[in-house]
Amino acid sequence: MTTGEVLSQSEIDALLAALSTGEISAEELKKEEEGKRVKVYDFKRALRFSKDQIRSLTRIHENLARLLTTFFAAQLRTYVQISVASADQIPYEEFIRSLPKLTFLNVFEVPPLNGHILVEVNPNVAYAMLDRVMGGSGTSVNKVDNLTEIETRIMSNLFDKAFSNLRDAWESVAEIDPVFTNFEVNPQFLQMISPNDTVVVISLNTQIGETSGMMNICIPYIVLEPVMPKLSVHYWMQAQKKESSPEETEALERRIRFAKLPIIVELGTATITIQDFLQLEVGDVIELDQSIQQPLLIKVGNIPKFIGQPGKKNRRLAVQILDTFKGAENYDDE
């Protein structure tokens, strides 16, 4: 088996059987892998997306999976659970070869981006959806080769409405307008791009009632190329600064100028025991620990800001600001 080779189901079963019977041991496979000192690079599998960009695409389609869960649950009136299983970049030819010979393939344009997005729905899942739409219990039967024109139209309309949710899921990177353009059942008839072109395949675990299967979203590099910078971690983490207009700045300054703040002038403080506090009566005098010769502390919003001296203005008690408050040590010295 070579790197990047796609095994058929029969080959996978044969490999598992050989491991279980002892014909091949896991230790031998491990030693064989450890013995390889040369890292194989396949130029047909050119990696055009970084790990950060793949993670960003995964986050986007996790949101899409939640939107699709809500949509199909409302449309089918049954238990629906959709979640992201994996996100990988592979050649388009490898993706096509991994699909069943007959399956449900939906092609979407995503203007203003170039190219097409391909959505493959496993027949088991698709027929469970069709059965629910037609009033059934959600039983799945695989008869893709005998799909009628009415069934084709029903499935096309359902997937067209469902994947309009791509618009909301992608709004953080691009304002797209998904348009359903084609429905096909044979993967070999869909040559959207060159076989060696890189695509990102997002696989969605899908459960409809008692039926489960996969939905695969294939996105070519040409579609994502214009929005590649927005898929980086730097874009997601950077602060989005919005410049205020002169009118907004003036309004903010006006509100600040007329904002009311409490101003407190402390004549002094005192420390007494709980017993003395409980015995206080009207007429008692509490001696403060501050001399009348010391300036008073002025607080603005409970924060020490100035020092001043008491007095009267127009027969009212007042305080005159002497200086700004420079800290406890300087204040005590004064």
TrEMBL record:
It is found in: Bacterial flagellum basal body; Cell membrane. It is a peripheral membrane protein. Pfam families: FliM, FliMN_C. Its main location: other. Keywords: Bacterial flagellum, Cell membrane, Cell projection, Chemotaxis, Cilium, Flagellar rotation, Flagellum, Membrane. GO terms for biological process: bacterial-type flagellum-dependent swarming motility; positive chemotaxis. This is Flagellar motor switch protein FliM.
